[in-house]
Amino acid sequence: MTTSQLDAWVTALSEELELDPVDVDVQLLLDVARDAAHSVTRPAAPLTTFLVGYAAGRGGMTTAQASATATALARRWTEEMPG
Predict the structure, then answer these.
(1) Is the separation of the CB atoms in 30 and 41 below 8 Å?
(2) Cα(56)–Cα(52) distance, rounded to whole angstroms?
(3) What is the rounded CA–CA span in Å between residue 63 and residue 82?
(4) What is the pLDDT of residues 11-32, one digit of tens each?
(5) What is the DSSP string of 47-74?
(6) What sign has the CA pseudo-torsion 30, 31, 33, 34?
(7) Does the pLDDT at position 44 exceed 60?
């Protein structure tokens, strides 16, 4: 998928979900997905981004705060958890 395809997808999906596409920080979410995939396991990537979005949607934290929390845990996971 090219960047323009990804942007088009995010815009279309945001509109379908009644979200403002401007509020979707694509790079931030891709980065947290990458960190989860590399530090935990590949299937952790979509689940992590879902949980980040869920936390932000509940209003307890911003997407940036939830992403930072998830990234920090993923990095600790590699150091603390046996593989």
Answers:
(1) no
(2) 6
(3) 29
(4) 999 999 999 999 999 999 999 9
(5) HHHHHHHHHHHHTSS-HHHHHHHHHHHH
(6) positive
(7) yes
